[in-house]
Design goal:
This protein has 179 residues and is α+β, with helices and mostly antiparallel strands. Helices cover 41% and strands 20% of the residues. Strands 2-1-5-4-3 form a five-stranded antiparallel sheet, with helices on both faces.
Length: 179
């Protein structure tokens, strides 16, 4: 299966979370990051409070996140549990067989999963995908870390609001990326 990147770096297409101001801001950050990182083709952001996809630059990025969440394995899941960046520059079948087989079929060869840390607590994961081997070195990870910090700033109020009240009242509406 040959899946083309969702963009040509000048016209990024996003498939998730574009229906709210928060979603649009998340997509802006994610798309700018993909544009800034040479070799980056796709990216996605997942919130951990309810395991929901907040933003993705392509349907492929969305599918890659779903595979990781349903199989409970992959760099995004590992970054969630470790609180550390998971950088995979050459995928093999050793770590996550289902995820890696799908990546191979889609010609995804490198992955960088960055935990979204808020006060030392992982609140989400930002994952960037590339069709190039060894796509994510120190300069690319620096861009990713800066973007992860910006994503935390956008996501934090949304998560605080959603846990403050499990039953929204007329005066208080739970904010989500989908409206």
């Amino acid at each position: 299966m040959n899946v083309e990147p969702a963009h040509d770096k000048s016209d990024l297409t996003a498939v998730a979370a574009a229906d709210s101001e928060v979603g649009q801001e998340l997509l802006r950050i994610v798309c700018e990051t993909v544009s800034a990182i040479d070799g980056a083709d796709h990216a996605a952001v997942v919130a951990l409070t309810d395991r929901r996809l907040l933003a993705a630059t392509s349907e492929l990025a969305e599918r890659l996140e779903v595979i990781q969440r349903t199989s409970c394995s992959g760099p995004s899941v590992d970054a969630e549990h470790s609180g550390k960046i998971e950088r995979i520059n050459y995928l093999s079948d050793r770590l996550w067989p289902d995820f890696e087989a799908f990546c191979r079929d889609c010609e995804v060869r490198s992955v960088a999963a960055l935990p979204l840390l808020d006060g030392g607590v992982t609140i989400g994961v930002f994952t960037v995908y590339s069709s190039d081997h060894h796509a994510f070195g120190a300069p690319e990870l620096r861009i990713g870390r800066n973007s992860a910090e910006a994503l935390v700033t956008v996501i934090r109020p949304m998560l605080v609001d959603s846990v403050d009240s499990s039953t929204p009242t007329p005066e208080r509406r739970t904010v989500t990326a989908h409206g």
